[in-house]
Amino acid sequence: MVKGFLSLRNVEYIVKNVSTDLEGRAELLAMGFDSTPVVVIGDHQLPGFDAEAIDHALASLE
């Protein structure tokens, strides 16, 4: 859902599969999260899928 949402907005993104990427899993835990998705946009760390929060974070980059 997050990937599709970002694609519709022509936003490039990086996917980290925390099931197979140990470094990605360590990053997730270091941010204080233990489940996905977590979207990182600039200084914003957004757990789950929240379209409004993602749009707000993207707008703050402009």
From TrEMBL:
<dbReference type="InterPro" id="IPR036249">
    <property type="entry name" value="Thioredoxin-like_sf"/>
</dbReference>
<feature type="domain" description="Glutaredoxin">
    <location>
        <begin position="1"/>
        <end position="44"/>
    </location>
</feature>
<dbReference type="Pfam" id="PF00462">
    <property type="entry name" value="Glutaredoxin"/>
</dbReference>
<protein>
    <submittedName>
        <fullName>Glutaredoxin family protein</fullName>
    </submittedName>
</protein>
<dbReference type="InterPro" id="IPR002109">
    <property type="entry name" value="Glutaredoxin"/>
</dbReference>
